[in-house]
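Submission sheet (multi-component)
Chains listed below:
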Amino acid sequence: MTEQHETPNSGVSGKALQKDIPQATVARLATYLRVLAVLADDAVAIVSSEELAVAAGVGSAKLRKDLSFLGPNGVRGVGYDVIKLRDRIEDVLGLSEGHRVVLVGAGNLGRALVGYGGFRRRGFAMVGLFDNDPALIGTPVCGLPVRDVAELTGAVAELAPTIAVITTPDAHAQAVCDLLVAAGVLCILSFSPVALDAPPHVEVRRVDLAVEMQLLSFELARNAEAAGETVSVAAAGDPVGVRTAPRNAAAMNCTPITTSHAAARPSGGTETASKGAVVQP
Amino acid sequence: MTEQHETPNSGVSGKALQKDIPQATVARLATYLRVLAVLADDAVAIVSSEELAVAAGVGSAKLRKDLSFLGPNGVRGVGYDVIKLRDRIEDVLGLSEGHRVVLVGAGNLGRALVGYGGFRRRGFAMVGLFDNDPALIGTPVCGLPVRDVAELTGAVAELAPTIAVITTPDAHAQAVCDLLVAAGVLCILSFSPVALDAPPHVEVRRVDLAVEMQLLSFELARNAEAAGETVSVAAAGDPVGVRTAPRNAAAMNCTPITTSHAAARPSGGTETASKGAVVQP
DNA sequence: AACTGTGAAAACTTTCACAGCA
DNA sequence: TGCTGTGAAAGTTTTCACAGTT
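Outcome: structure written.
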């Protein structure tokens, strides 16, 4: 790896230990960061690993171990400096410079994300919003006009986004992804459950809302099993009857964009991640 | 928790091996399930571990190992029966009976979720939708009227939901959670980044969309570091300037109900808290 | 006394490679 | 032959316990 002169103010991140930070730790850093931001707002100056751990919902030992990968950040016998630690984590996560985000798919989910204060607050700026629905194009969402997806390629050059978010129907997700990749976007967050095919240098992260619900369902089932099959409140109501409706129903779409029909190809895309390493759950 | 008589036959799911299935495996089962549903729709009868693995974005060995925890599901030399495997996974995940879902917070995100076809398709039925905004109460979303959150307690008894979803602004999340817990809900999915306090018998799962973005950011930073700090496309645009605005700004809310939050996925920004033990990804 | 940072042990997960079956 | 199921090895993450610092 090319070495680099040490600019006092390095471009992307400060100390450069990224390579050695475990995946699992990185995932938690973002959580610590949120807690620290709250503490900072409350003008809390110092926090102990125990306090921070409780607020983040992890064990204090794990938290200390996590932070130790970023180098020494605390003072023994005292605790961590809230501001300093926050800045350090932001730096490591590459958030220091902020990110410019374009979003494709201005349906309900897309609009919800654009309006999500948490993004702005955490350094993500929405700079472009695209859709292919003529009824939506031109209308502003949170002050940002919806632009025609046909302009996407040009707009990417102009807006120079660091991250793109896909919230289109499943059927369009791959096409949009291709478009973004061709335009030079390196980081994509997709809310479509279909696995997107992209070159290895492009980081694709997929998020599937239904998966979360299914994980909850599993816990519920396990608890019920362990406790002897009482489902408490739920026991009263009618079971829902999952497979009553045809699986493939393009079904009741009631809102502008969101919904989808199952359209993935039989053995199509693989979830891609950078460097040949697929980032898996 | 009160212990109970041990019913030999558990009502919720067939073979009852839940206890022995590793966390990591469970998280992936939901993904396999989605792929299998697509295959079933396409009338594919048999699938090999390799095909399924590619479509799900994992290695075939891992996939076979995962499935082996559910007992024998395939035929050596042939592959897996799509329908049979799908049903088996649904059973293990506790999806066979379907789930009744109430959602509190009819903002953009809430409405997006109600309209999200993926839920219905996978056995989750929205049965109730609540908000405290008089302007929203009474208006239908996807055929479901928004009800006053004041009715929530009574409605839970009446609707007997198995799962509740919280998509309210952060400030209300805990109050709504308390309300749900008091009403007897056992499973809660929250899209607010704040850690919710709930009794140990209640399964709370939190999802924070910003975490996903931050993980992407980290990969970007790491890649840039490894490649010699060029940020390609992004290099052109102005840095965003994260901390320019006050951190605590309740900030520009531009859509009906208030802020909203979004999703994540197995590994990243997801957390499950339960039975006093915080289960980490 | 209070709290961080960390080596070393334990637990969990992934990968490998092959036995076993249709 | 082709593909599943699995034990054992390799790798990763968590937990423990305590040495070190203020």
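Remark: Confidence is low (pLDDT under 50) at residues 1-16, 230-281 of chain A.
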